[in-house]
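Figure 6 in text form: structure in, sequence out.
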């Protein structure tokens, strides 16, 4: 007769095997997403990354990959899953959040404790162009010193959609947290660090326009036909 402890032991081994298989499958699906741009079983990917993040990172490292791949997968999955919801939100209820580290080292703007950094449009960095586009589309732009600032803004103004820019690690973590509150999309920094980091401004602008330019085009066409 099998004892109670044996049953528990066998169940524990079975659960361990299932977990390892799930982590391996998720890593494979994540690599397919990054390399082939194919999204398969996104909910499984999200579940693995949210519930077993540390184990997932360990498995990736065991295959010679670094933590960035895990963050890349997390960002890509959420971008794919949230894009259509984001596109349906009117621009007046969207925000763009960029980190202060993309400013020029000689930026003349100062930090406000409530609203972040208020760009003076000096033109020394890309934020001037992002600000112009954000204002043209109707977004609110926040240039923030860190993650806690973003949480405060989200709680205070409760946007329905947010587009965030940050390093891979912070962006993945932030998107996971904010996904529960609004439709969040993200653009990772091309070069991270503390000052004068780099970002793909074209990609930010492309995402900012999601669901807006097409709509405006339709309104223009409708008027022309009338
Ligand atoms: S464009 Fe704005 S954010 Fe960039 S350096 Fe000038 S004032 Fe600072």
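Output sequence:
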């Amino acid at each position: 007769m099998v004892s109670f402890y044996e049953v528990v032991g066998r169940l524990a081994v079975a659960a361990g095997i299932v977990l390892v298989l799930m982590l391996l499958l998720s890593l494979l699906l994540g690599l397919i997403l990054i390399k082939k741009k194919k999204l398969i079983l996104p909910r499984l990917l999200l579940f693995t990354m949210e519930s077993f993040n540390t184990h997932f990172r360990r498995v990736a490292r065991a295959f010679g990959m670094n933590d960035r791949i895990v963050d890349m997968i997390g960002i890509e999955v959420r971008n794919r899953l949230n894009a259509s919801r984001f596109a349906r939100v009117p621009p007046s209820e969207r925000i763009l959040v960029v980190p202060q580290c993309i400013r020029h080292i000689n930026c003349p703007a100062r930090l406000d404790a409530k609203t972040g950094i208020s760009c003076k449009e000096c033109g020394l960095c890309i934020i001037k162009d992002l600000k112009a586009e954000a204002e043209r589309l109707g977004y609110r732009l926040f240039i923030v010193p860190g993650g806690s600032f973003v949480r405060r803004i989200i709680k205070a103004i409760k946007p329905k959609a947010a587009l965030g820019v940050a390093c891979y690690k912070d962006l993945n973590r932030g998107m996971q947290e904010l996904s529960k509150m609004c439709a969040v999309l993200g653009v990772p920094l091309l070069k991270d660090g503390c000052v004068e980091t780099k970002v793909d401004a074209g990609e930010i602008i492309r995402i900012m326009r999601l669901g807006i330019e097409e709509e405006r085009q339709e309104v223009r066409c409708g008027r022309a036909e009338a």
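Caption detail: The beta strands are 94-99, 111-112, 116-117, 140-144, 161-166, 183-188.
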